């Protein structure tokens, strides 16, 4: 399991081990009265966006949608000189 601020990912090489870790994580949430947003939860996905990176069986990639937004920004037309 990896945790970053209010996001976490549970992953393992086997389905059974993944379920075991997921059960432990839910138990921790229950023990600490942490409420999960089920609308934002994803289970059993082959790929997903985590911390603005696409995670899949191919590894970690930059989210192309984010790159496209930056690529479409207008080029600067002025230069500010700092002294």
Automatic annotation (TrEMBL):
GO terms for molecular function: RNA-directed DNA polymerase activity. Keywords: Nucleotidyltransferase, RNA-directed DNA polymerase, Transferase. InterPro entries: DNA/RNA_pol_sf, Rev_trsase/Diguanyl_cyclase, Viral_Replic_Matur_Polypro. The keyword Nucleotidyltransferase applies. Coiled coil: none annotated. The keyword Transferase applies. PANTHER family: POL PROTEIN, PTHR33064:SF39. This is Reverse transcriptase domain-containing protein.
């Amino acid at each position: 399991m990896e945790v970053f601020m209010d996001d976490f990912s549970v992953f393992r090489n086997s389905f059974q081990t993944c379920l075991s870790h997921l059960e432990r994580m839910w138990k921790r949430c229950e023990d600490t009265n942490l409420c999960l947003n089920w609308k934002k939860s994803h289970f059993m996905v082959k790929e997903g966006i985590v911390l603005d990176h696409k995670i899949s069986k191919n590894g970690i990639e930059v989210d192309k949608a984010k790159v496209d937004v930056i690529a479409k920004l207008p080029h600067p037309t002025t230069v500010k000189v700092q002294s």
